[in-house]
């Protein structure tokens, strides 16, 4: 007699059928907290930029400038933090770019307009719009350049044109000088306008400028003490004479532009 198969025999169920999730499904249902941290830093920087504009409307220019400076510091941190935490994402890149446009393409020049250019009427406002447009074009070009897969590694050590965070600081140089009780004042309108136009053109120029991304993660041992002394001196200046220190930073950046161009040309000739 042939044995008939037992229809009541339990079938082997798959993990999904038995209500158990695979590791991949479990991973997709959870989002690592570490990936939120860089974007949270970027949103904090955005809040500082927007707050700076509100403070400018109230005439509290010094606090407004400090908000933008702090936003610039956070901008320097969020990208490195994303790489350190392995939390880089397309969303974070786009959020960072949009935040840079507000914080360094709109807020600083808006403060300068409120501070010195309201009496210039339409011409002053046209200069402000020109700066903002140049910043938008500069950020768009930067985003496209980052997507080039065959870009040589040595070119990553340079920006094309002045980056928007640096431009945001440079355009406020007259305000820094005035806050430091130096010659520049809000009635030096021609110099303020020329500075805005010059910085705007630097953003969209093809001038190579030094990028902090090209710095080596290691230094020679004999340079440790001099660098620590330099950092300590800068800290003393910032906490004791903040506006003088920020003015000097802007002036040194201007002086370093020829050095960046010469360094780029030397590397291009060597690699070419």
Describe, in plain words, how this protein is organized in 3D.
The structure is a single chain. By secondary structure, the chain is mostly helical. The protein has a single domain, classed as Up-down Bundle (Four Helix Bundle (Hemerythrin (Met), subunit A)). 67% of the residues lie in helices and 2% in strands. The protein is built from ten helices and two strands; from the N terminus they run H-H-H-H-H-E-H-H-H-E-H-H. The protein has helices at 23-28, 36-57, 61-84, 90-117, 122-146, 164-171, 173-179, 189-204, 224-240, 242-271; strands at residues 158-160, 208-210. The chain has a two-stranded antiparallel ribbon with strand order 1-2. The chain is globular and about 50 Å long. The model has no long low-confidence stretch (mean pLDDT 85).
Largest sheet: 2 strands, antiparallel
Largest sheet: spatial strand order: 1-2
The H-and-E topology, N to C, reads as: HHHHHEHHHEHH
Number of strands: 2
Structural class: mainly alpha
Might you state the CATH topology name?
Four Helix Bundle (Hemerythrin (Met), subunit A)
The percent range for helix content is 55-70%
**Total count of domains:** 1
How large is the radius of gyration? 26 Å
Could you give the topology of this structure?
Blueprint: H1 23-28, H2 36-57, H3 61-84, H4 90-117, H5 122-146, E1 158-160, H6 164-171, H7 173-179, H8 189-204, E2 208-210, H9 224-240, H10 242-271
Antiparallel strand pairs: 1-2
Helix pairs in contact: 2-3, 2-4, 3-4, 3-6, 4-5, 4-6, 4-8, 5-8, 6-8, 7-10, 9-10
